[in-house]
Amino acid sequence: MSESAKPHHPSPQGKGEKTHASDFSYVGIDAILEQMRRKAMKQGFELNIMVVGQSGLGKSTLMNTLFKSKVSRKSVQPNPEERIPKTIEIKSISHDIEEKGVRMKLTVIDTPGFGDHINNENCWQPIMKFINDQYETYLQEEININRKKRIPDSRVHCCIYFIPPTGHCLRPLDVEFMRRLSKVVNIVPVIAKADTLTLEERDFFKQTIREELRANGIDVYPQKEFDEDADDRMINDKIREMIPFAVVGSDQEYQVNGKRILGRKTKWGTIEVENIGHCEFAYLRDLLIRTHMQNIKDITGSIHYETYRVRRLNESNAHFKSQPSDQPAVQPKANGQPEVKPSAPQANGVAAKHEVMSHEM
């Protein structure tokens, strides 16, 4: 068969892909981006956000404003006579959100009871335990011999901490919470209900908070040490200069100059939530959703979770090595009482490590 008579079989071309027949040097490496995009679109995304702050600061309203949906716990389960709980409760609710074909499972974790008591000593401990419990759950799934193809991710990716708009300085509770929790989760501090402050009071309060964060060694997101390159540093430096964000939340719609806006109506006019001249909500939204969402998740997995994982594996190895080979292994139970178990055979050393890894922190 002559060259000209050979049948021509066109190569399969994905939707949206460009032809490069005229480019002799083209290999096609850039097609990996389209492959990754298609795979990501099929799998969808997960985002877990925790909101912390005392009652009445607008946590539920702000979350509804961020995602323009009723995503907060109170919006889904209204309880007009909700009393202040005796202890801090951790409550989460998940939603499936879709926009332009992109699916995301959003989980909002609320902490009712935080900072609402006369004695708030150690009120950060249940929140710290919850965050570590999610790391532990992920770790246990990860070390299973027959682990899932895709491990469900319940790890807290970001914690929005609501600061009361006092206009003076951080409370000892604020400092202690952020100092401890910034080591295990990405914290984004916001000044709640910023429309109660004048512009001068707001700027002074923001500057005071930044100075207190530096003085107490509190590294909030985006952390300077995790900037990947000069471009990242330049972008993140601008964000760090704006932290904490002075925000106003509202899920009420109004018409202003013929445009639909989210805002708060007063006798003096309408406060437009997404107008950067009125508040910094738009900067917070862009950080969490439009520009840094993947980076927030990456730091959770590669820094915070990795730190937890290394510590737990080191603890497990130390506990395992301390057990005599001819003695039964003593494994702590969830209630703290020791439970004697026979030593497992160790063809590869995995079984015994897994036994130890299941103990309660």
From TrEMBL:
Gene3D superfamilies: P-loop containing nucleotide triphosphate hydrolases (3.40.50.300). Residues 319-328 have a biased composition (Polar residues). It is found in: Cytoplasm, Cytoskeleton. Residues 43-315 form the Septin-type G domain. Residues 352-361 have a biased composition (Basic and acidic residues). Pfam families: Septin (PF00735). The keyword Cytoplasm applies. Residues 1-21, 319-361 are annotated as: Disordered. The keyword GTP-binding applies. One of its GO terms (biological process) is cell division. GO terms for cellular component: cytoskeleton. One of its GO terms (molecular function) is GTP binding. Keywords: Cell cycle, Cell division, Cytoplasm, Cytoskeleton, GTP-binding, Nucleotide-binding. PANTHER family: SEPTIN (PTHR18884). Belongs to the TRAFAC class TrmE-Era-EngA-EngB-Septin-like GTPase superfamily. Septin GTPase family. This is Septin. The gene is sept9b.
